[in-house]
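Q: Convert this sequence to structure tokens.
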Amino acid sequence: MNTDHLTPTTIAALVDHELAAQEVAAAQEHLAACHTCALAVLSATQLKTATARAAQRYTLSPEMRDRLIATTRGRTSGARIVPMRAYTWAALAALVLLTVSLISWRGLHPAIPSALSPVVAELFDQHLAVLPESSVPQVLSSDKHTVKPWFQGKLPYSFNLPEPAELPAETTLQGADLTYIGGEPAAQLLFLTRKHHVSVFFMRRDVLAPLSIERHGYRLRSTTTNGLTMTAVGDVGDGDLGALLTVLARVQS
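A:
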């Protein structure tokens, strides 16, 4: 077995969809057996999504642009100044906004019990990563017969999904992603509850103990059933998350 990790160049090309079909197949085969590279790809994908979102949200003002040019001119001692292109300014603004956003979100985590901090922090982060409007699920479907089979061969376990009519009122399945929690593959099911996004993660039973926790408007509730841990995260009430988890737990037996 090849134990070499994917190079940063290959990871970047994979995230940017620049690999040939044969190279993509080889990379996916490697990712299925290498959690380190899978996490690296996931991190690169999230960074790309967050940066794109930030670039769309912030436009550098003419005044700030002029000040930056003046500052640069003063520090170059008369050297020739090459005007930055528009996309360079957008990238700079996106990087600044992304850094501030990450620092603000990480500020929520110290209050989480230390024993649970890594996994709980990942779950909150993974949910936030799918909130941008530009984020499209890897499998975009409300049909359980499409979503469930998509995970075959991608997870070391299986799970069941209820019929649409069995879901709580005003709750619909939107799609799903393959993600990694604590270095282990997990299914992230994406639901919409009264226009609020809710993620439900299917993981191995020993990944996280049952708990309910709220941080700055987002609630996390976890339960275990039939060898699985199911964790719901969203900006809805604990009762809404509990109702959804109850329906999902019922169909796992």
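Strands lie at 171-181, 184-193, 196-204, 211-215, 218-225, 228-234.
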